[in-house]
Specification:
The structure holds three protein chains of three kinds.
Chain A lengths: L1 H9 L3 H17 L6 H26 L7 H17 L4 H25 L4 H20 L3 E2 L6 H8 L1 E2 L2 E2 H19 L1 H11 L1 H6 L4 H27 L2 E2 L6 H11 L11 H20 L4 H23 L13
Antiparallel strand pairs in A: 1-4, 2-3
Chain B lengths: L1 H21 L14 E5 L6 H17 L2 E4 L7 H13 L4 E4 L8 H9 L3 E5 L13 E4 L3 H16 L3 E7 L5 H17 L3 E3 L8 E3 L4 H14 L5 E4 L2 H14 L4 E4 L3 H9 L6 E3 L2 H16 L10 E4 L2 E6 L3 E3 L4 E3 L4 H4 L4
Chain C lengths: L10 H19 L6 H26 L7 H17 L4 H25 L4 H20 L9 H8 L10 H18 L1 H11 L1 H6 L4 H27 L10 H11 L11 H20 L4 H32 L2
Helix pairs in contact in C: 1-12, 2-7, 2-8, 2-10, 2-11, 2-12, 3-4, 3-5, 3-10, 4-5, 4-10, 6-10, 7-8, 11-12, 11-13
The chains are: A mainly alpha, B alpha/beta, C mainly alpha.
Chain lengths: ~325, ~350, ~325
């Protein structure tokens, strides 16, 4: 029994999950509406975009890099999908356009970071500005509205299966698939090594540049897909879509156990982190905290979450693939 | 002898000068100098509402033979607008038509522009009343009270004159919205005694969506979560009312939604019955009238004093207390006229 | 004798060159750039960013970062505003505001050095906290009608010159930072910590105290920037300076400071902040749209790291070929 408890608590994502349950239960007691089907839907639906982006970002942070361009790319992708759909192109074509955009941005980031060995913070900060600028120029004052977006996306954004919104199911499946890849694929496991000890990983023969490039490519692809989620969720897109998402995404990853120092964390941890942050935000409203206090409380809780995670992780073995059997 | 010569020369020069000034240089409209350099500055450029606003300004510019430029920041902040105000000063524009992104922060910059000889007209969003001297006039849609009370009338019509209502606003510091909301409180109490605010008072019933789609949607959800029995939501901002309509449709909620909405954006939701009615003034008119006001002031024929009038196109407008010119009550859009208006703006 | 051989090319020299070139080209392509009123405005425009970029340079060289600076600036501004609204004399309100700024920095310092949290992550949290406190203080009521004797300092120029009053602060703090970083033990320690924290600890450098001090000073300078901001805009609003933190960090990185730590010069940062202001001014005066300006800012940032690296790679190739 003791061994079982030890093994469970050894999992890095457990504290975050417990925190999530705590927040939901405590708020639910104070305001039962929070636990209703509609309240739960608000959490799941509200988190869909950030959760999708967090899955992609976790792959990057694990390598000890960061990708600040995700918000602008997702917003641009959302706008492009709507734009192409309004010109009567089919759904698949529109989605491919979004994917292509994401891959293009990811490729540029990847080339600069992996092969020119430039720092990812600088590169993705620069590409964030460039993408946003091009996006603004193309979108100008136009708004994509519900009637222009693909019907399928509009439907998915409003539909739920067993009270769980389609978009969240999508994000969860994505998190599951990517986590599986990160856990079992040899090339993906290399990313953890690269994040833990960059010089050593090169010495043991890991093709660092290639792995880094493909990881950024993957993050870009996820950003493109997140654009579809964005359009689906909000049924509209304009030049300000996706603005400021990147800091929320990074916060979700960090809270979910994906340490900025690299080498630890999983996509499903990032998903739970996103859920935790979203529930805190909605809980503050449900608890009747004044509008003017909400951001301050949110910031305090974020700091607490990061501190708690640090404290617990210093006492727990991190989730790496090199599990030493005891 | 010399004195006489000088006096004659001066007189001659003065006469020539007067004739030169009186003869309008290709003035398309009387009383307005031709070829004026006019800057039209929105709160932020990538915004459909301001694109329409600028279209009105451009129409006026063409009529009066002026050279107009549409420029502004990507972020709707005062600090960003100040950079562009400096650009106006440096490039020696004659007139600035501006929608104030921040009612206080841009005032020092506007005063500097005035000192450099530029005529300032605010439109759509004014500076703080204490800084009224920094602009010739403010061209606003209608008195804050009328915009606020009109919205209450719309929501009351939708809810049948009873129930509790909440407000989904823009940023907490948005001066326009705050002024409209201030008028809503007393009006609701006096005219609709069977209606009340979800939080007890109007101040406790305002949720800030920051003119951001994500936040506005989240705040709509928060209203329903905190006050499940809410009967109506008023959103005095185009971003907010659009988000509310979308979310209402997505959740299949029964709460009534109304507010200030762009007909082109709200058309799908009016046509399918999600929203009964929204209203808005015509931003095209706002821009059009403001350019005329600025051009006339720069030509010396309009001073902006309270009670004075000026002509914009075919209509005449009057300056009221505080130096503000009002256009008139907002239009309302419902099933009967949305098809026409959604093509205009 | 090409640029590849000879003296080592570092980006800070590149930025200074770029600054000179932009200023000269700018004076030719538009007559409005090289006027005293425009230059006065450019200095005002970059003053707050410059003031915060100075301590941020130390922080990044030491291997840390602070994303909460803009929120700290706003909190100090809001503090000054709320105190003034409650009748405090403006001078005392400023003093309390500066203390608040230092406290913000100290909180960051505590979280990073005592609790051992990653600065990138935790300053995202303090960013939200400080900004939230602005709203707690002011709600939705910005403070205006500040005393003109003070706001004149914010908006007017020093008599008989075209320089704004904030220029005095820039000169004093810029010189101070330059000397501290490159000519004192404090500066040497900062570099050492950035290059190798463990080695620095072993050689007796008080790493924790150093980083704590750097964070606190960053908070204090954000406070001074907050005072300048409040005077310049003659108002205090809870949503001031939103997004400035990325502008500061972009400027510091553009100045040749390595995000990995241990490398950078103060003159590079000074030139970078000036250059960003100058380029924005020139491009605006030739009617480049705000959207295009975003693209240019991003491209400049990419160039600032790509060019030195490309030159380094080319040089390495040459060295491999030539015996």
């Amino acid at each position: 029994m003791r061994a079982l408890v030890d093994r469970v608590t050894a999992i890095r994502e457990v504290p975050v999950f417990i925190a999530l349950v705590l927040v939901v239960v405590v708020t639910g007691i104070a305001n039962p509406q929070f636990l209703s089907a509609s309240g739960a839907q608000d959490i799941f639906l509200g988190v869909a975009v950030v959760a999708t982006l967090a899955v992609g970002q976790s792959v990057i942070i694990v390598m000890r890099h960061v990708d600040l361009s995700v918000g602008s790319t997702a917003g641009f992708a959302a706008y492009l999908i709507g734009n192409e759909s309004a010109r009567n192109h089919g759904l698949i074509y529109c989605l491919l356009v979004a994917l292509a955009l994401g891959l293009a941005v990811g490729a540029v980031n990847g080339l600069l970071v992996a092969y020119l060995k430039l720092p990812s913070l600088v590169v993705t900060l620069g590409s964030m500005y460039v993408v946003r600028g091009i996006f603004n120029q193309i979108a100008a004052g136009n708004t994509i509205n519900d009637s222009q977006a693909p019907k399928f996306l509009g439907f998915v954004g409003r539909n739920s299966i067993a009270h769980i919104p389609d978009l969240f199911i999508f994000a969860a499946i994505l998190a599951f698939i990517v986590s599986l890849i990160m856990h079992s694929a040899r090339s993906a496991r290399d990313l953890y090594a690269m994040g833990s000890n960059p010089p050593a990983s090169a010495l043991v023969g890991i093709p660092v540049a290639r792995r880094t490039f493909f990881a950024f490519l993957a993050s870009g692809a996820v950003s493109g897909i997140a654009g579809a989620v964005l359009l689906s969720r909000f049924h509209s897109a304009d030049a300000n879509s996706g603005l400021g998402l990147e800091l929320n995404v990074i916060a979700a990853c960090v809270v979910g156990g994906v340490a900025i120092a690299g080498g630890v964390g999983t996509p499903y941890g990032a998903l739970i982190g996103a859920l935790l942050l979203q529930s805190i935000t909605l809980a503050l409203g449900a608890l009747g905290v004044s509008q003017f206090w909400q951001q301050a409380v949110n910031g305090t809780l974020l700091i607490s979450a990061i501190s708690l995670d640090r404290y617990l992780s210093s006492r727990i073995k991190p989730t790496t693939i090199m599990r030493v059997s005891s | 002898m010399q004195k006489k010569l000088i006096r004659a020369t001066v007189a001659l020069v003065a006469v020539i000068g007067l004739i030169g000034a009186a003869a309008p240089s290709q003035a398309a409209v009387s009383g307005i100098k031709g070829g004026l350099k006019i800057a039209i500055m929105p709160k932020q450029i990538n915004n459909g509402y301001f694109t329409a606003w600028a279209k009105g300004g451009a129409t006026a510019c063409k009529e009066i033979g002026a050279r107009c430029t549409y420029l502004g920041p990507t972020q709707a902040t005062g600090a960003a607008q100040v950079q562009f105000i400096n650009q106006i000063i440096q490039k020696k524009y004659k007139v600035l038509v501006i929608s104030a992104a921040d009612q206080n922060a841009i005032v020092p910059a506007l005063n500097k522009a005035r000192a450099a000889g530029i005529t300032i007209v605010t439109s759509d969003a004014d500076v703080d009343p204490s800084a009224a001297a920094s602009r010739v006039t403010a061209v606003l849609p209608a008195e804050s009270a009328r915009i606020g009370t009109a919205e209450i009338d719309w929501i009351a019509a939708a809810t049948g004159g009873k129930g509790k209502i909440a407000i989904l606003s823009a940023a907490a510091t948005a001066a326009n919205q705050n002024a409209w909301i201030a008028a809503m409180g007393p009006y609701l109490t006096s005219k609709y005694p069977n209606m009340s605010w979800v939080g007890g008072t109007v101040d406790k019933s305002v949720f800030y969506g920051d003119d951001d789609a994500t936040k506005s949607v989240a705040q709509f959800d928060a209203i329903l979560s905190q006050y499940p029995d809410v009967a109506g939501i008023v959103a005095p901002t185009t971003v907010g009312v659009l988000a509310a309509a979308q979310e209402k449709k997505a959740k299949g909620a029964s709460v009534k939604v109304t507010g200030l909405g762009l007909p082109s954006q709200m058309a799908p939701y009016i046509e399918d019955g999600t929203v009964e009615k929204v209203g808005l003034w015509n931003p095209i008119d706002l821009g059009y009238v403001a350019v005329y006001a600025g051009a006339r002031a720069a030509s010396g024929s309009f001073k902006g004093t309270v009670g004075s009038t000026f002509k914009a196109g075919k209509k005449t407008y009057k300056v009221t207390a505080g130096g503000v010119t009002y256009l008139g009550d907002p239009f309302t859009f419902d099933k009967s006229n949305i098809a026409t208006f959604k093509k205009i703006y | 004798m090409s640029i590849l051989q000879g003296r080592k090319f570092t980006w800070d020299k590149g930025v200074m060159l770029l600054l000179v070139v932009t200023a000269i080209v700018g004076s030719f392509v538009t007559p409005y750039f090289a006027t005293s009123s425009n230059l006065s405005f450019v200095i005002q425009d970059i003053a707050e960013i410059m003031l915060i970029a100075l301590p941020m340079t130390f922080l990044i060289i030491a291997g840390e970062i602070d994303l909460s600076v803009a929120s700290a600036l706003s909190l100090v501004s809001s503090t000054i505003g709320i105190l003034f609204r409650h009748g405090w004399p403006f001078g005392w309100a400023i003093v309390v505001g500066l203390i608040v700024g230092a406290l913000c920095g100290a909180l960051n310092g505590f979280l990073v050095t005592i609790l051992g949290l990653q600065s990138l992550a935790v300053t995202i949290g303090t960013l939200a906290l400080f900004r939230g406190l602005c709203f707690v203080l002011l709600g939705n009521q910005p403070v205006n009608k500040l005393p003109t004797s003070w706001t004149n300092l914010g908006y007017n120029s020093i008599p008989h010159t075209f320089l704004p009053y904030s220029f005095i602060l820039l000169v004093i703090f810029g010189a101070l930072a330059w000397v501290l970083l490159h000519y004192t033990r404090l500066g040497r320690w900062t570099f050492a910590v950035g290059i190798n924290v463990e080695a620095a600890k072993f050689s007796g450098i008080p790493v924790r105290r150093l980083k704590f001090a750097l964070f606190t000073v960053t908070g204090l300078m954000s406070g001074i920037a907050g005072v300048v901001y409040t005077l310049r805009f003659a108002s205090a609003s809870p949503d001031s300076a939103s997004g400035y933190e990325l502008g500061v960090i972009a400027a510091v990185l553009f100045g040749g400071v390595s995000i990995a730590g241990g490398i950078g010069t103060l003159w590079g940062v000074l030139a970078a902040v000036l250059e960003l202001g100058v380029i924005r001014s020139v491009l605006q005066l030739i009617d480049v749209s705000a959207n295009a300006l975003l693209i240019v800012s991003g491209a400049l940032l990419l160039i600032s790291v790509a060019v030195p690296r490309a030159i380094e790679i080319l040089r390495n190739r040459r060295e491999l070929i030539t015996p």
